[in-house]
Amino acid sequence: MSEPEKRVGEDGLEALLQRALASTPPPALPPSFTGKVLDRLRPRRLAPRARRMLQLYFAAAALLSAGVMASLGVDGVVIAAALAVPAAIALLLRKQLT
Amino acid sequence: MEADSDLVARAAAGDEQAFTELVDRHRDRVFRLAVSILGQEFVGEAEEVTQEVFLRVHSALRSYRGEAKFGTWLYRVTFNQTINLKSRVRFTAPHVGEEVLEQHASSDPDALVRLERARRDAAVAAAIARLPEVYQSALRLHYWMGQSVAEIATLLGVAENTVKSYLFRARQLLQSILSERGVDHV
Prior knowledge:
The structure holds two protein chains of two kinds. Chain A is mainly α. Chain A is 73% helix and 0% strand.
């Protein structure tokens, strides 16, 4: 390295910074960026078929539970509460998420 | 062009088109600010932060009171979120060993020049990483992304003279760090 090269100066530092930092082109966001943000904002919904399947499953499970509890002699009010409480919580959560 | 404050009011009321317009209007600046804080090696992470900033801003639109300009608020959120991420995750540029650099060297005189330049650029990047965050950001915005002092002032939410003083102090500190490391051949 030659002597003049060793000198540190404002101009030299300016040039060094420009060379070192500008060696990589400034990055840019992809054109799809805005779409990605909007996708993340939209609530995710199940496909209609999957929703129907899930509703049928819950209805069947509730009926079966009610039947089993009734056959065990559980009081009707307790059965109604046992089914209504989780249903109310599910509806509340759904309301908060949408 | 519709004012930011009008778009914010519409977006807060659930107008997706208004929010899209806000994202399109500010996305590049938010990204530039994030990448200027994280550094050249972390462009992907900067894009992720940019997305997170807009999601956070969307959920906070109703609480935005308009005391500060929307842009000022948005860039402040970006700065804080990026600094948070940087402090949680240790961001270090991948280390390039001497042996890797020397593999690129050959008897070609240009190759030696390139090797020397790569060493110097790596030393500059390491020296910049030792500066206070706001100086790093100002330097990268100015020298890498070619932003004007006025534009940097907007992004950092400070006066133009403050940006000039950041750049001046950053160059002074950088000069002394590079001199310490013997990289004063500029």
